[in-house]
Amino acid sequence: MLSRSTVSKALGLLPRSAPATSVVRGALLHTLKPRQANAAATPTTESSSAAEGSNDTTVAAAAQAYAPLDTFLRRHNGPRDTDVEAMLQALGFASLDEMVAATVPSSIRLSAPLEISDSEYAEKELLAKLKGIAEKNQVYRSFIGTGYTDVVVPPVILRNILENPGWYTQYTPYQPEISQGRLESLLNFQTVVTDLTGLPATNASLLDEGSAAGEALVVCLNSAKKKTRNAFFADRNCHPQTLAVLKTRAEGFGAEIVVGDYKTFDFASLGDRLAGALVS
């Protein structure tokens, strides 16, 4: 319990010019008023209720003044109400609910507001909560194979490429590739591979191996001048998931995936139908 002398000392230490300080002063002063009333006489029920209500208001105001500042809603630069009204008017809707009802099928819409058990977290609080959840995971060694193996990234690459803030801090995060800086780092990687291999061109993909192979297939088919070049060779040592993705992507283009051993396969048998090859 705070004594009057303690509160007086606390008030004297607070700068009177700070806006948030007035809230603290009010909160501390309100803690004294009920005690002064109790010392003089026992308050009535009505006066007690009024004091409790005043205290609740003060506590709520103090909590709002000292609430975390790094929450999403506060930091998010969304449209102003006037901008929302102007856009809705241009689209011919009176409200956002009316627009959603006209554009989103009722079968996939929630009939009641989304219930979120936890209150809004500040960034630091959310990171701490997520870290606590992640610590419950039990990491075991994977024996799946087929490309799912541990990767050792050299520290010089890790520090200067993956962890270098110069690749992403100066770019907007709203681009599809997350940041232009990531594309710049990939370009540097492609340049190094070109120098090491002596190839005229190289590519660096952000996709998994199967998806990257599927994209390579599409590039080969689209770059072929003759539409009869619809055969794509894939080495039999490619991972099964990579071959599966290739076959699925080839169906949409009417292409044929030929699987074999690149060391012994007779490429001449394909004639001018060969559009590209994948070797593993």
Which helices and strands appear, and what pairs or packs with what?
Elements: H1 4-13, H2 19-40, H3 45-65, H4 72-75, H5 81-91, H6 96-103, H7 123-134, H8 155-162, H9 180-197, H10 209-223, E1 231-235, H11 240-253, E2 256-260, E3 274-278
Parallel strand pairs: 1-2, 1-3
Helix pairs in contact: 2-3, 10-11
Main sheet: which strands, in order across? 2-1-3
Oligomer: single chain
- The span between the termini is 74 Å
- Beta content: 5-15%
Written description of the protein model:
This protein has a three-stranded parallel beta sheet with strand order 2-1-3, covered by helices on one side. The model is unreliable at 1-45 (pLDDT under 50). The longest helix has 22 residues, at 19-40. It has 280 residues and is mainly alpha-helical. The termini are far apart. It contains eleven helices and three strands. The protein is 51% helix and 5% strand.
Brief descriptors of the model:
elongated, mainly alpha
In short:
By secondary structure, this protein is mainly alpha-helical. Helices cover 51% and strands 5% of the residues.
